[in-house]
Amino acid sequence: MIKLTQIDKFIESRFQRIFILKGVDLTIQQGEFVTLMGPSGVGKSTLMNIIGLLDQDYEGNYEFDGKSVPAMKDKQRSSLHKAEFGYIFQAYHLIDELTVYENIETPLLYRNVSGSERKSIIADLLDRFKMVAKKDLFPEQLSGGQQQLVGIARAIAGRPRVLLADEPTGNLHSAQAKEIMEVFRELNKEGTTIIQATHARENADYGTRLIEMLDGKIDKDIAI
Ligand SMILES: Nc1ncnc2c1ncn2[C@@H]1O[C@H](COP(=O)(O)OP(=O)(O)OP(=O)(O)O)[C@@H](O)[C@H]1O
Predict the structure, then answer these.
(1) What is the pLDDT, as a whole number, of residue 51?
(2) Which residue windows are transmembrane per the record (predicted)?
């Protein structure tokens, strides 16, 4: 599904080229649950942004479902991003002025999903995450764990095949973090491919594969 070959990402400073990723080869099959770990600044978020089609500024090849991503036109890449990827961030990135319901609805509006279908998808998600009673509240009226559940609901509303989660439990206490990881495990069982970056070793135990990065490279790649 995802095949990265010899990916280099670098920035040009005045005197030298600084590599953020160097020679990364990585193949991820549909249905895997992959955890990226490694010290801060090692390139985890950079790699996830490349995988999620948010960063085009790199060298090497990236094939998604056998199609070369660098060869795609911007429009094609952007519709692929919208159709196939859901993104979850450490800092939730919910829209403060919108209710829980409206936050979950946003990506569906971009995808031109009909009103009745939107209602049914959101009702299912609210039910699944036990947030029905909270649907008219605003993000600031929720706990961190609840905000992250809304972030997940929003990310999966469009039924993406790949879920990218960048330090998704970084702001949560351990019980909330566990709840989020259980949701990921369930989504993965239903067939969603999950790629998470985390500093928490216990989060890796929910996955099927652990990749440790060092100095912009893959240092270890272990099946769990
Ligand atoms: N646009 C950019 N310009 C300059 N440096 C950058 C840019 N993007 C990333 N970097 C640098 O690349 C390195 C890798 O960053 P990245 O965010 O991918 O690391 P990370 O492993 O996700 O770290 P963390 O665990 O702290 O989130 C960092 O040293 C960062 O400062």
Answers:
(1) 97
(2) none
88: left (phi over 0), alpha (psi -120 to 50) or beta: beta
Judge whether residue 101 has pLDDT over 90.
yes
Q: Is the pTM of this model over 0.90?
A: yes
Q: How many residues does the chain have?
A: 224
Contact 86, 94 (CB under 8 A): no
Does the beta carbon of 1 lie inside 6 Å of ligand 1? no
Query: Of 23-27, 179-183, 188-192, 204-208, which range is least confident?
Result: 179-183
Average pLDDT of 68-90?
Answer: 93
| C-alpha of residue 120 to centroid of ligand 1, in Å | 39
What ipTM was reported for this prediction?
Answer: 0.92
Regarding the beta carbon of 40 and ligand 1, being less than 6 Å apart is answered yes
Backbone angles phi, psi at 8, to 5 degrees: -115, 135
Rounded to the nearest angstrom, the distance between the alpha carbon of 131 and the centre of ligand 1 is 35
Q: Does domain 2-223 have CATH number 3.40.50.300?
A: yes
Query: Where do the structural domains in the chain lie, given as residue ranges?
Result: 2-223
